[in-house]
Amino acid sequence: MDKRAESVEIRSASKAYGAVRALDDVSLNVAAGEFVSLLGPSGSGKTTLLGILGGFILPSSGTILFGGRDVTWMPPHKRDIGVVFQNYALFPHMSVGENVAFPLRARRLPKAAWPDKVRAALSMVGLAGYEERGIAQLSGGQRQRVALARAMIFEPRLILMDEPLSALDKQLRESMQIELRTLHRRIGATIIYVTHDQREALTMSDRVAVMKDGRLVQIDAPERLHDHPADSFVASFIGEATMLPVRRIDASGVALGNVLLRSARAIPDGDSLMLAVHSEKLLIDDGAQDTACNRLTGTVTDIVYQGESLRIFLALADGIVLSLRQASHHEAYSRIPPLGGSLTVTLHPEDTIVVPRVRD
Amino acid sequence: MTISVPDPSQKHQRREHALMLALVSPALLVILALIVLPVGWLGWQSIYHDGFTLENYRRVFTEDIYWRSFALTFEISLVVTGIALLLGYPVAYLANSMPKGWSILILSLVVLPFWTSVLVRAYAWLALLQRTGVINQLLRYLDVTGEPLALVHNTFGTVVATVHILLPFMVLPLYATMQKIPSDLMQAGASLGASPSLTFARVFLPLSLPGVLAGCTMVFVLCLGFYITPELLGGGRTVMVSMLVSRNVELYNQFGAASAVAVVLLVSVLAIFAVASRFISLDRILGQK
Lengths: 360, 289
Hints:
Chain A is of the alpha+beta class. Helices cover 24% and strands 34% of the residues of chain A. In chain A, strand 9 (207-212) and strand 10 form a beta hairpin.
């Protein structure tokens, strides 16, 4: 086990505000050094759970353990965890250096040791030499880095992040995601990261916990979550999937309208099933694909050019509409028929995802 | 060769300026009639009495009674401001940190006395503090003291009543400033390992200082010109500047001297605002922002 990291155990934590259950019996184990994202739409309870871990919110019931110690009733300043807040929460009346040194002051470290530590923390986030700057002089991305340096200077073994990149523009956000990943590997601390952006969660995390209505729906590695969703909520939330109601035929087949689809996975029981068709898993049938593939034929109703890719809408019989994505290169252009033309696409049985339907 | 053509847009602009002037003129007239003219008249009276004279100002700056009164006024104002800050800060802090319903209740209780006249409140304090008043009777009943304490008709009574009346002017700007301090800064402080007292001292207190300055300036300045409480509760021994003005007029019929005192007081107040506004915008002191 990594000495620089701490495991986190949440045992059936609940939080009720009056009649509203913001968090409903959530249990979750995070291994030391793991990067886990809490993903969900607003109101799913992810921020409440993070608040409970940070000690800002007391759970109505349940237990929280850090590295095996019960911290449920421990005040935040004794938890020794780094927290990065959504809007950074930098102290506006202090310079960058003073902000970053704040945890050292709180821990009564001798002042002589501050400058070296501050310098090291700032250079770790690429802001070497920014000590004297005021917070107001920084750009959004720089503030984000200062907040990171401040949360990491005391080498916490657990870092909580509450949508830290949501205020940044898309390009900066994506480069920060990669930086955070690298940083996580370097410092080795356990990170619990709250986001509503599924792509962000998939990019950075070892595992992603999907939450809905205060409950934990599924926790899995990104590729498992994407390709093996637990139910129709997860399937529609992760990736770009078209959700289509299907009828169960047997343990390996469903009917979409009057088309029989074979799946390599076990079809769940029950008569309320949905097929999740990810748009990148549909390929244009050029005869090269496996004969075992499911084939769907329809009419092209729209072609949307989106820069790096094209999104093609395909209307099947019975008014069912699918969408597929093609990388925008010349080969693809030549394969796509004009609007109104007929197109056959293939869906591999391994990619034929059938999930139980839950209400959204 | 150039031909000068009247620019139609310039003409339009001039017409717009004229219209704007017409629209603000009622407000300008009110300010002129209610502020500029009276204050101008005050200034005029202070330097003109059968010819120009600076005699009134010479007396204000040299005679002992004036000096003592100004010194006492500043002293009382400082004490009142200090006490109001000590009492008002915790109240504002509490109102700021409580849930909405409670904070409204607390602020209502602070503002409620505003709706009764200052005179009524001053007399109420008289009833509480005088020799046969509620407090002295209670103290004697409990055998804490044999002789009734001199709680009123002195500087003590003046300060107590003035603090009470001016307290809202301290609490409201403080509360407004505290409301603007993001609560996640306190959470951040705690998450970084700082105890609540350290977070308060290093984060909350410094960020609330603009409110402290605004509240103190308001209370201090208002206190400088206070009249009713020192008149009623000072017992004639606590002569503040405003009473000097009224005595000059009522007892000695010396409008010139009264005007000079008033002008000196006005200039002091403006000077205080000028100094304070170097640190914080006037809008904020006056509660506009």
